[in-house]
Give the backbone structure.
Amino acid sequence: MFSLAAFLVSVPVFIEAPLVRTYPWLSLGITPLLWGISRYLQTQTRYQRFGALLYGFSWCWGAGSLYWGWLRWEPLWHLPVEALPLPLMVWHLRQRQQLVGVFFFLGSFLGTAITDAYFYLIDVIPHWRAIMYLEQDLVSVQEMLVQAIAQAQTFSGEVWGVLLSLSLLLIGLLPLFQSQIRQGIPAMLPSWAFMGAVLSTLVVDGLFGLTIGLLPL
């Protein structure tokens, strides 16, 4: 469950991102397909837990498609749009339903929120906005990227990067302190999904940060 959740977090980065930029309606249209597959898998005893995980992922995919397809020019809308499924997830949580999917969504959303917080703290939101508006002008985009990288490579940028990375690591490892999860009890599968989502976000962000650190200005 942990490895599958970790894999699903990387899907939007490497698959959805290029798809939604070119074919936003296709990307958004995949969402009900994911719901359907999730529902089918949950009717099969053997694959029920994977269907629940896919259910949480489908909401991440749908919200991401909506934002990056039509609203990506305004960074302030990113978290509100990604949070649209949150009331439903809270309802499922109170009903004790779809817990694997709910915890996957919560872990993924938390990782997104912390990543966005980093962008705000190092003041690269204006660069994000400019890059989205100028995406057809490759020269201007390159200039904006150089400026954003310079911001990230400052002392404060590196300090915030380390602090937020440690926060993600701590949050992602918290479930390990529950004795049940170390014993592999099936009821703890939601915790594994949460850990996979959070720690995979840390890995993706870490690779991004490492790349920035190695780039010459």
